[in-house]
Structures are given as structure tokens and as C-alpha cells.
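Notes to self after the Tuesday call (sharing in case useful).
The group wants a holo model before anyone commits to mutagenesis around the pocket. I volunteered. Ligand is WTA. Logging inputs and output together so the record is complete.
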Amino acid sequence: MEGKKFYPTKRYLEFQKNAIANLESFWEKEAEKIPWFKRWEKVLVWDEPFAKWFVGGMLNASYGCIDAHLHSWRKNKVAIYWEDEQGNTKSFSYVQLHREVNKLASVLKKIGVEKGDIVVLYLPMIPELVFSMLATVRIGAIHTVVFSGFSSQALADRINDTRAKVLITADFGIRRGKFVPLKDIVDNALKLTPSIKKVVLIKRTEKEVKIEEGRDLLYHELLKNAENYVEPEPVESTHPLYILYTSGTTGKPKGIVHSTGGYLVYNYATYKWVFDISDESIYWCTADVGWVTGHSAIVYAPLLHGATIVIYEGAPDFPYLDKWWEIIEKYGVTIFYTSPTALRMFIRYGEEWIKKHDLSSLKILGTVGEPINPEVWEWYYKNIGNERCPIVDTWWQTETGGMMISPSPGLELVPLKPGSATLPLPGIDAEVVDDTGNPVPPGTKGYLVIKKPWPGMLMGIYEDPDRYKETYWSKFKGMYYTADYAMKDEEGYFWLLGRADEILKVAGHRIGTAEIEGAVVATPFAAEAAVVGMADPIKGEAIVIFVILKQGYNPDDSLKKKIIDSIRTQIGPFATPQEIYFVEKLPKTRSGKIMRRILKAIVQDKPIGDVTTLEDEASVEEIKTAYEEFKKMIR
Ligand code: WTA
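Result:
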């Protein structure tokens, strides 16, 4: 690679340029590819920063993902292959999926769910999770999926923000052979949430769980009296499809609201370009449905295309190290989409596990969620793709609704560069800018921004338009602020360089430092806490906490354990820290802001000069002195 220049193809650049120049007609053509009950009157109403796409159009996501396929050969093809750690399998054809979704939709109606109501889903990776999402939107209700790794407190916070009346859960989830007591977690959460009146309980196991009469209803019992068909409720294009909570820079998670029409059009289009998906694809995205990747990449985009999806309920390396490669071979997966964290873990296990399997069905490989190091990219290309499959490194966010910067082999493959997400997708006007909002020269680090609206963009933050404006549209005038650092190279390729705000990506999971700090100071003995990310060879980032104790408490391991317990009960086990340091004070600027730059330099064992953030208000001298002082303190 050294010294060689790789320019994007002319065709791709033309395509991109034309799309941006004719934004509305470009997206209008894409919108025509998905089923609508009524055509829109206006492609875009842009009341900055609020975008309404395909205004006046009516559609239904469940119709598009299921019913639309029942009139073709796809009717009897497999929509979902599901497998668990024990090797139990289930599969559902499109017509069977239709049946399941309709039955549940009729049940939801019977228990009082109406158009516009919010239904909370707290479920493991079982087919019923997909049924629940599609059944909810079938009747015009809105789902809020809460990742089943979140604790009862985190679940309660999300329920309380939506004031939802109905929740769907399961008795247990199963991971690494262990039973995760989801119903118990729900019961605890519901002590803190007055709004939930009905719980639909799916029995995933034979084990007994507590049932609260009048509130808890058994899914399999309800289905006995369910109807086989429920008319899909036509909704406005701008009717919310779902709310998904994600971490921000304050302790309170943001309810990201996505539209029905714009979101579906955007995901339909981008999955064709990026994954060249079709109704012949066997598509496996290893994310959990609880995160945005699961929403777009497991459920809505592939089902809209009539593809077959694979769902695996379990950890990547359990019960044996080649479970994933076995799944690819067994189902003949053609498109495989995973995280750099998972790949880094597999590199460590060695190639012999992969060589045991025939992976020749694969056509395109993808990654998402965090930057991929060039070595990992090369390893993926060679060992999983056998040097045949393009790798699509897809950059996007919960807020963007779909992929934004990525190679597009389904449209026009540009030369790939390991570690670069390549170029913005057609219609996406991305730029890298400095503090004043001006583009930076090639090779310079800056902030990634998007300069024009796109159909997948969030409609807002649930019930908080001011926070929406403040978070995304106040840093730079007229540009969506991604809060990611990036760099463009000489050939115009984008390189993503991590978050520019106080959000961590731990094993691809998005966690706000403020949420963790909140959980630490919730203990009776912590006076103050500061959380930073430390580079981790597998997880990308790991959590490090600095804690100041209240007077009268002495640092010891029992306090560390209590801090960990607090994080696990307030957020969830996935936010468990790697290191906890007790300190007497934290380095602060004159106005009292913690100098995170110093903390980051220390945990990464780097000289202070190498650790850049663009927003520190302290002078270099001050930072150096504070760094030296602080370093002595934690030794
Ligand atoms: C990061 C996940 C580098 C980024 C879909 C972004 C990436 C955050 C990539 C959003 C990528 C996502 N390369 N970084 N290909 N994809 N990110 O909301 O920092 O969970 O802002 O959405 O993940 O995380 P979220």
C-alpha cells in the first residue's frame, strides 16, 4: 500500500455530486422503491433544524417489511433463521412471520395499545423481539427497545421518560449458558415506574417466574385468542417509528425519535448501495437489536428488501470458539456485518477455528460501531473474506438512522483503504471542519459535520426540542454536529478518529461518562468522580474511573467493589470499569472544569502533548503542571 495513491472512481464522484445538487429529486426516486399507501406531496420540508421527509405520504413499516412480500415468490422463503447457544433452531418464512406479527398486533390492540402509544420492549435476541417491533408499528404504535443488558434502574429511567403503559419482556435471556433474570429486573424497574399497566411475558424457558395478577399476561396464553390478520394502520411519513435511547454528555439519556417514511427510505436505499442486499441475500448482523444497528441492520432494512436474516442469541465465543463460523457455513451467509471488537477477539483465538469452516458463501463483509484498525481490517479481509469480499467499514450513529460514510459495492466500488470508511454515501454532504466551522486541509484532524438533511436523520429528542438544537445544531451554524473527530486525506477519503465529546465506545457500546460518574457518586462514600476511556486492545476503549472519597473514608478494595456494584445496578454489567483510582483531587481549570486531557494522558501513559482535545481552556503550562502533580498523586 505504501506510497500508492487510491482515488475514488469518477463514476462515484459524479453520482455523489449529482445527488447533493439535486437532493430532493434524488431522494424522491429512492422513495419510490418502497411501498406507500399514498404518495407524498412534498419531498422535504426543512425548517432548520427540523426535517420532515415525504410529507403527506402514508405507509406502514410492517406492511413494507412483510405483507409486501406475500404477493411474490418470497412468501414461502425464510425470513428469519434463529439459533441459540445450545444449537436450538427456529425458522420463519415470510408468511409465518406475517402470522406471528398479526397475532401479536391483535393482542396489543386488545390490551389497549392505540396508534401513537409507546410500547417498551425489554427482550433477549429471540424471534419474538422482531415480532414485537413489527406488531407495534403495524398498529401505528411506537416501540422503544431497551437493550436487555441494561439494569432495572436504567430501564426504569427510560420507561419514565416515555410514560409507556405496556411493556413486553421475557422470563430470561440466556448468555454464556447463564440465565439472565429479565423478569426480575423488570419487576424491580416497575416499582419505580407508575405508568406501566400491562406486561406481556414471553416464556423463553421452563423456569418459574413471579406473575403479578392483573398486570402480567402470558404471551402464549394471549395468542390463543388472537386474530390472524390485523389491517396495517396507515401512518403519516413523519409518524414516529421508534424511540431509541442513547447516551449523551449528561447523565440523562436522549430519546432519539425516528420517522417512519424517511427512515425506511434511507435504510432501503443505503442497504442496496452498501451491502448490495437483495431478496437472495442471507444476511447476518451480529449486533443486539437493543442498539440502533439492530434496528436498522437486523430488522428494518433487510426485511424491507425481502432478505433472509440470521439471528444468534448468544456470545460470540460460546459454547465453542467457532460458533460464528459454523453459523456462516450452516446457513450460507452471504453478507456478514459485525464489530471491530468481535474481530479483535477472534484474532486472539487464532485462525484454526476459522479454517474448519467453508466460508465461501460470503460476498460482502461489514463493520460498524468503532474505528477499525488497519491490521484488523487486513485480517478480516484475508481470513474471513479469503481476499474475495470487499469490506464495508460503515460509519453512522443512532441519530443518523442509517449508514452515512461507507464503501458502496452495490453501487460503485471505490478502491478500499484499510481503516478508512472511504466516502460519504450519495446525498450525504459530509465535511471535516475546525473550531470555526471552516473545512480543514487534507490530513488535518477536525470535527465531522453533515451539511444537508438526509431522510434517515432523527426527527428530534423525545419531548426535548431545545436539547436537540443545543446538542446537534448549536456548535456550528447550519450543520449537524456529529461529535466525532475525523480527517480527510489527499484523495478525499474519510478517516474516523473517535468521539470528540464525553462519550465512550466500549466494545462498540455507547456509554456516556456522565452516566457512569452519576452511578459512582450515588454511593454514600464518593464525593466526586471523573471517568475517561483508556485504549483497550480488544474492546477499543475501556472505562477508567478517578474517585475522590468523602472525609472519613479510606481507599480500599471493598469500596471499589461497591462502586462496581453501583454501576452494574444503575447502568448494567457492560459498563463495568477496568480500573478505579482513588485520588485526593482532580485537575481542574479555573472555572472548575475537569481537565480530562490530563486524565486521558495518564491512563494512556502518553506524554501530555500527544493527547489532543480541541476544547481545553487552560494554558499549556497549567496543564503540564497539573499533569505532573496529578501523576505523582496516583502512583
Ligand atoms: C462510532 C452505532 C469509526 C462513532 C451505529 C459514532 C464509528 C458512534 C463507526 C455512534 C465506524 C460508528 N468507524 N467510528 N465505522 N461507526 N462509530 O450511536 O464514534 O451506538 O459517533 O451508533 O460510534 O454510536 P451509536
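Two things stood out.
The mean pLDDT is 95.
The CA atoms of residues 87 and 323 lie 9 Å apart.
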